[in-house]
Design brief:
The chain is mostly helical. The chain has 6 helices and 3 strands, in the order ααααβββαα. The chain folds into 2 domains: 81 residues, no CATH class; 41 residues, no CATH class. It is 43% helix and 8% strand.
Length: 153
């Protein structure tokens, strides 16, 4: 299921074992490279090979793209899920093998682009909180001094 490869494939330097499942290779090609092959396959290895061929790459190159230094560190630390900003991985805690690849999470996945309508009470509370925070911050002191005509140096 996994293949032992040196981390720096091009330089020939040996490094930590790259433990990425065929399922994770297939998911990387589908979710990150956006290449999908609609066929029935007898096993995950064949599915991964066909997806990589369709994407114009090899299983070895995809495994090296998934096995970044940050993800390797997370595997050594025993983390079960980690994201590097480009994609996320789910790691089998027993074996340390990357089981699947998931799309990166958006910072604003929960936010909507709608304007929130505040009631008068919510608006007053928010204004009080804003004013209270400005009163106690150095920036707020500069604004108070400017309003009073004093120069803030």
């Amino acid at each position: 299921m996994t293949q032992s490869l040196p981390h720096d494939v091009g330089t020939g330097q040996t490094g930590p074992e790259i433990r990425v499942s065929y399922h994770a290779v297939t998911r990387y090609v589908q979710r990150i490279l956006r290449v999908t092959v609609d066929q029935d396959f007898k096993d995950e290895k064949q599915r991964a090979r066909h997806h990589c061929m369709e994407a114009g790459t090899t299983i070895r190159n995809v495994r090296c793209a998934i096995w970044t230094p940050g993800i390797a560190l997370a595997v050594r630390m025993g983390v079960t899920q980690v994201s590097n900003g480009q994609f996320g991985v789910v790691i089998d805690p027993d074996t340390g093998v990357i089981a699947t690849v998931i799309e990166p999470r958006s910072k604003h996945a929960c936010r909507t682009d709608r304007l929130k309508l505040l009631s008068e009470r919510e608006y007053r509370q928010k204004a009080r909180r804003h004013n209270r925070n400005n009163r106690h911050s150095p920036k707020g002191a500069a604004l108070r001094d400017a309003d009073e005509g004093n120069e803030y140096v």
